Amino acid sequence: MDKIVGLGNALVDVLATLNDDTLLHEMELPKGSMQLIDEAKLQQINSKFSQMKTHLATGGSAGNAILGLACLGASTGFIGKVGNDHYGKFFKENLKKNRIEDKMLTSEHLPSGVASTFITPDGERTFGTYLGAASTLKAEELTLDMFKGYAYLFIEGYLVQDHEMILHAIELAKEAGLQICLDMASYNIVEADLEFFTLLIHKYVDIVFANEEEAKAFTGKEPEEALEVIGKQCSIAIVKVGSGGSYIRKGTEQIKVKAMKVEKVVDTTGAGDYFAAGFLYGLTCGYSLEKCAKIGSTLSGNVIQVIGTTISQECWDQIKLNINEILAE
């Protein structure tokens, strides 16, 4: 099985379930988006969270995907940056617990990044993200050794603001012989840096993951047409359409795979990340595109039934049985 290393914002998710959208309006956070916030806004949110029940989990888009892969038994590693604090320790301990190779850097000046996550009754999640130490990972801190021994590099789109760092990471990964996977991350991120996304996908990226909104922000088109546009620029393109399933294109081959049926969506946090984890797990095992997508749907369908991205061991055991059934089809 091929090894995968993730590169992303090392964040700790602090999750809270809301009764309605009132607090989102109060905090000026557009529903369903990921907004970067400063320390003052973080303190404002924390004062609200202190009066609510919250749940703690390691997060960040790439971090979630790598965790999902590790829980399936894949060999993984993670590159990111945390502060020398409680949250940083929590993040690193979680890597160790899940046998994810720790390629972390530590900032002595900034606190660890925190993603304040608001979950509304419809399961939609909205992020107010304070990047802190996570945003200080620089090109010059990356080394070739961080990428050696892996077959794939999984990058989250949230990192694209630092063009120099992303390009250097890709350069090192290509030198080490890795294929590049990019998750577009959020429609507003794509809109804000469209030219750079276009450069990355056209020139460097092998596998692209996008949801419906991100694909539209990138191409201006609806899912199937967007898939065709993206698919011509990379090796494998995936466009996820929520409960409508996913479209996958490789060369001239195109398939559609249904989403897993779920009675109640509790929280959509990590749905796309876990889909990517399942898909890439299948890919590292050499399975067909259809089987890869079905495994992705299985992981995605399970994570949206819990708050946050922590799935119980009992649930993972069931997921593995479901994967065996997919493979036997």
TrEMBL record:
<comment type="similarity">
    <text>Belongs to the carbohydrate kinase PfkB family.</text>
</comment>
<keyword id="KW-0808">Transferase</keyword>
<feature type="domain" description="Carbohydrate kinase PfkB">
    <location>
        <begin position="48"/>
        <end position="313"/>
    </location>
</feature>
<dbReference type="Pfam" id="PF00294">
    <property type="entry name" value="PfkB"/>
</dbReference>
<dbReference type="InterPro" id="IPR011611">
    <property type="entry name" value="PfkB_dom"/>
</dbReference>
<dbReference type="InterPro" id="IPR052700">
    <property type="entry name" value="Carb_kinase_PfkB-like"/>
</dbReference>
<protein>
    <submittedName>
        <fullName>Sugar/nucleoside kinase (Ribokinase family)</fullName>
    </submittedName>
</protein>
<dbReference type="GO" id="GO:0016301">
    <property type="term" value="F:kinase activity"/>
</dbReference>
<dbReference type="InterPro" id="IPR029056">
    <property type="entry name" value="Ribokinase-like"/>
</dbReference>
<keyword id="KW-0418">Kinase</keyword>
<dbReference type="InterPro" id="IPR002173">
    <property type="entry name" value="Carboh/pur_kinase_PfkB_CS"/>
</dbReference>
